[in-house]
Amino acid sequence: MGLTPLETLIRRARALLPEDGVITDHARLRTYECDGLAHYRVTPALVVIPETAEQLAAIVRCCAELQIPYVARGSGTGLSGGSLPHAEGVLVVTSRLRAIKEVRREDQRAVVEPGVINLDVTRAATPVGYYYAPDPSSQQVCSIGGNVAENSGGAHCLKYGFTTNHVLAAELVAADGDRVRLGGDAPDSPGYDLLGAVVGSEGTLGIVTEVTVRLVRLPEKVVTLLVGFDSTDRAGAAVSAIIAAGIVPAAIEMMDALAIEAAEAAVHCGYPDGAGAVLVIELDGPAAEVDAEYADVVRLCGETGAFEIRTAKTPEERFLIWKGRKSAFAAVGRISPDYIVQDGVIPRTALPEVLRAITELSERSGVRVANVFHAGDGNLHPLVLFDDAVPGAGEAAEEVSRGILDLCLQHGGSITGEHGVGADKAAHMPKMYAAEDLDTMQLVRCAFDPDRISNPGKIFPTPRLCGERPGRRQGAHPLQEAGVAEVF
Amino acid sequence: MSDITVSGVTPGRTEHPASTAEVAEILRAAAAAGESVIPTGAGTKLSWGNPPTSADILLDLSALDQVSEHASGDLIATVGAGMPLARLNEHVATAGQRLALDEAVPGATVGGALATNTSGPLRMLAGTMRDLLIGVTMVRADGVVAKAGGKVVKNVAGYDVGKLLVGSMGTLAVVTEATFRLHPVPQGRRWVSVAARDAAHAAELTQAVLHSQTVPSALEVDATADGTRVDVLVEGRPEGVAGRTAVLSGLLPGAETSDQPPAGWGRYPWDDATASHVGVKVTFRLSGLADVVAAAGGLGMRGSAGVGVAYVAVPAERGIAEIRAVLARLRETAGRHGGSTVVLDAPQAIKEELDLWGPVPALDLMRRVKDEFDPDHRLSPGRFVGGI
Q: First vs last Cα of chain B: how many Å apart?
């Protein structure tokens, strides 16, 4: 026929999808060249926007047949380049699969398509007294499919867990185009917990086309406190005291002076003047329980040196407290032309030590770092500030950002708590895991996607040749030696 | 030769490694010799699952019973797979903490609970093994030692291989060490129990509690020939527990409260019987409770109604035809309500006559996972779904 595989795919895609569901025009392709991590950009060869799971599965089947790589994308808000397109591949956009199929109060379940926006699940469940607990800061725009791929967290995962704890079942379009059901409406499906492996696999094990989530009862009472301290050390001590008292707040967030300054400049959230750190603490649950915990939290914050404790009296006041925290990333744009959002995890008790080390790193390099984090579970989001117009500033910021991840690993933590590895941190994986660990993870990849066409190049710095006998490989990967495989 | 059997199959020999390195050494040698290996802890569930197709080595991990780390400020603990669950909980209780996972089978080890994914009433509060496990050290079939996850609760770096190992019955790798997130031991706890008139009434009461604002740690239904009971556990600060208990007493007219668990709490119904039983686990959507209680009928059922899990004991003396009929009835009911029916344990002669798992969706994909992890099928061969 003389058609290239890509031309064949385009022809088939046009037959399968509505006209505006197939994008080949270069200018329009470029609008998909990056996700929320905008400094990585790759123009995809083709963008498809299916409207049904059948269409999506048919496209993936064509990709498998033609050995064309594909990358799934939801709302494109990811912060690790997880949906960074492949230059010779297809970007499969799930945003038109956006039906909320069922909200079943009696079963505490909702069934949704992957393009449904996170907050819309909560909006659909609120009238019957329920909500969807995982709440990434981007919840007004991020999609459930993206949340499943990234195992998204959020401020409230300290108490309620992550996406993986709230997804009961999914329909997966496997890398061969087959549609398989994983998990079930009821718990403990017989056999391996494949769903547990798929959630958080960043689109490398397939694309979900339907997700069953757990709905959680809206709490009877919510109390939100804003607590000012003169230093991050004192704020950290308050966090430890609260946890040690056996209290599991819905959220404990910390911001340091620089992050507070940025938030004030951007959204005028009215945080305490002159604070070296603030904590946003939220308690929720049965009223009697929350009241008892509240008394303890106020006492513990006082004992650890809080100079101001403010409790939201109205929903507006609560909104303003959270607005300062949730807008912190974007707000940093007010005080710095450019910045890197880092995402690392440390054991919570290492917080004071790691914060001091970040300060030293910042002072030594002259690179400013604003700290915003989920203090309850040790998930740091340092914002590394720089001005790209200054020669060398970007590199210096990158180095500080890398240094922070090294600090996390030195303290037994993780290189990512919720943003994912994606394209951004694949090179860091060997610092956290031994070659054997990565090899073992890739056994899962080989079972699901032996040809590595589903989001190739993400998570793993070196691909594993599937079908190879485990543990007997020596030296460089054969594909790598042959110059076939990419090394990140 | 010992008299221990794995579902009736006598292992060729038993090895007693005392470290991950020794496990690796044994598995490398077994790989070279083409020998099959069946990991075990306290041996409390060796009769579960299908009989293995081969059992050259029984790998007794009970000597891997150390606490490697208990970071109380971080609410995590890392322990050897051979550590009994009860001992782990005694250890972390000294810091006012607990692993919020019931010891469903007395004497069970961490590794055994992980391999069989057992759980009890507290799963309503904290989920199951998959929700509590944050890191794992395993030895693969080829003897390679690998880790997954880590020792921080929040971590999305790489695949969550630990979740694949949960409930895998030792067919993918040998777990030697596990890291868990812990929860604070609540200051107060109280049980609220009420008799239900029948299955429909029990379901009605269960729904009332589910939609209330009392956030129970557990919501159980215990149906026997003597009647059906709904039991709710609330935990928290003493003032909070008092307030929530009062709300529950209003929702459940005639309820009694106690600071002690009701009889049979967290035990499989067959644990109470002396004669041998077929132990069945049924799962269902929450709205299917009344039908499941009705399908169990005079046999009764006990389980976590608040999450959709129940256990049914079928006396072995009923005979194979009736046991099959019960299983078919439960399977049809559970299937109608989005769940499954699995035979956990049964006398060997009966087990051989039964389909233990029922329909298993995505079985092909599961076989591919098995083939990648254990291409020669030497780890607990045949014990799991579809003969994996």
A: 27
- Give B87→chain A minimum CA distance, Å: 21
For testing the chain A interface, which of B122, B156, B165 should be mutated: the one with the most A CBs within 10 Å?
B156
Pick the residue of A109, A156, A172, A193 with the most B CBs within 10 A to test the interface with B by mutation.
A193
Which long-range contacts link A459-466 to residues 24+ away (Cβ below 8 Å)?
Answer: A459/A201, A459/A202, A459/A204, A459/A421, A459/A422, A459/A426, A459/A429, A459/B158, A459/B159, A460/A426, A460/A429, A461/A426, A461/A427, A461/A429, A461/A430, A461/A487, A461/A488, A462/A438, A462/A487, A464/A439, A466/B372
Tokens representing residue B159 in the block: 């695949």
Give CA angle at B337 (B333, B340), nearest 5°: 70
B151 and B242 share one domain: no
Domain boundary among A194, A217, A240: A217
Do B276 and B307 belong together in one domain?
yes
Question: For B163-189, b where at least 16 C-beta lie within 10 A, e where not — what string?
Answer: bbbbbbbbbbbbbbbbbbbbbbbbbbb
Asked if B61 and B143 sit in the same domain, the reply is yes
* Nearest residue in chain A measured CA to CA from B285: A186
Selected residue of B74, B139, B154, B340 to mutate for chain A interface (largest A Cβ count, 10 A): B154
Domain span including residue B325: 269-351
* ipTM of model: 0.97
Same domain (yes/no): B13, B27:
yes
Domain identity same for B168 and B107: yes
Q: Within 13 Å and on the Cβ side, how many CA atoms surround A173?
A: 30
| Residues A225 and A326 reside in one and the same domain | yes
**C-beta separation of A70 from A92 below 8 A:** yes
Q: Show pLDDT as tens, one digit a residue, over chain B (388 residues).
A: 457 999 999 999 999 999 999 999 999 999 999 999 999 999 999 999 999 999 999 999 999 999 999 999 999 999 999 999 999 999 999 999 999 999 999 999 999 999 999 999 999 999 999 999 999 999 999 999 999 999 999 999 999 999 999 999 999 999 999 999 999 999 999 999 999 999 999 999 999 999 999 999 999 999 998 899 999 999 999 999 999 999 999 999 999 999 999 999 999 999 877 789 999 999 999 999 999 999 999 999 999 999 999 999 999 999 999 999 999 999 999 999 999 999 999 999 999 999 999 999 999 999 999 999 999 999 999 999 999 9
Interface residue A341 vs chain B (CB under 8 A): no
Neighbours of A409 (CB within 10 A): 17
Q: Structural domain of residue A437, as residue ranges? A: 433-481
Q: Which of residues 51-110 of B touch A (CB under 8 A)?
A: 71, 73-76, 96
Q: Does one domain contain both B19 and B143?
A: yes
Q: How many domains does chain B fold into?
A: 3
Facing B117 at nearest CB: one of A107, A188, A469: A188
- Same-domain pairing of A52 and A116: no
Give the list of residues 6+ apart from residue B82 with CB closer than 8 angstroms, or none.
B41, B61, B62, B63, B64, B65, B109, B110, B111
Give residue B141's identity as a one-letter amino acid code: A
- On average, the pLDDT of chain A sits at 93
Closest CA of chain A from B161, distance in Å: 6
Does the structure show a pLDDT above 60 at A481? no
Q: How many distinct structural domains can be found in chain A?
A: 5
d(CA B152, CA B130): 15
Query: Would you tell me which residues 348-367 of chain B have a C-beta closer than 8 angstroms to some C-beta of chain A?
Result: 357-358, 360-363, 365-366
In a domain, A32, yes or no: yes
Closest chain A residue to B387 measured between Cα atoms? A191
